[in-house]
Specification:
The chain is mostly beta strands. It is 10% helix and 39% strand.
Amino acid sequence: MPWPPLKKAYLLYDDWKESKGADWPGRHTKIMGKKVALVVAILTLLLVAAGLLYWKAGHTERRISARPGNPVTSAPAGTGRATGNAEPGTSTAAPSVETREKKGSTPVEPGFTLRAGESLEFAANVTKLNSTVANLKIVTAERRNFYGKSSWHLQAFAHTENPYRMVFELDDQFDSYSEAGSFASQQYEMHLSERGQKVDAVQRMVSSPEDPAPADATAARVPAGTRDPLGLLQYLRGIDWGKTPEIKSAVYDGRKFYEVRAVLLGKAAAVQVPAGNYTASKIEIHVYEGGAEMKDAHFLLYLSSDAARLPVLLEAVLPFATARVELAKAK
């Protein structure tokens, strides 16, 4: 099913290119190439696994020059980055995720509760290899006020493992500030360290063409309600798939804009991963770019059927191999 094309005004954003200079396209790297362009847009769980495999298989693009972007320092708990700050009097205990109706967007179901402090650790492996290629940790850091909106600070940390680390050293961090309830992205940050090169990018989501670029970040001009990969994962966890068997979402991965369609295939799949045995909902992920579905990869997400709705497994069937990102530990 083809995805209706977006209005041209929203296909690209202009401030990022302007902030990097006119030669930005010629300096785009293998660091961000196919590794992030396709995979990160689909789901954060594949930040390393399928992305690294794409790079190793030769699906590469031009390189970003390894120059630092806007410097970013980690904010202490309870303090804000720029003018965003923690909600006064808000405990780090888990509040229920808010439900907000938005035109053209399926709201997160009220039965799902995202827990501040949640930490999920994953191991990425490939069917043709006998060891873990990379590990990934996804953290729900806190709920805070971010520029006037109640938002979740979500983080992902990705590292390659030996012996693959000797070939492709990767230590990446991703930060998302996503609006509570809808998980629409407010700000998306990429702090990349790959093969000795470091790149930092901080992008604030701007939905109105008339809004000026912020002074402390790059403006990414996207349609209202667009999610980043970290927000998308939490959004999918919040859907009651028994009542809503299909959803669509606009996704921005820090470089490109995609449309994602997720469809329920089954509600009682048996899944065995290092973290344990689960009964899970099996969800198929379709990715569209410019209205056309991408055909070179096939993705399946398994969410536990209990109240936690843990992302226990993600499978990526690629032209050259099948990658599995398995839940190793949840706390």
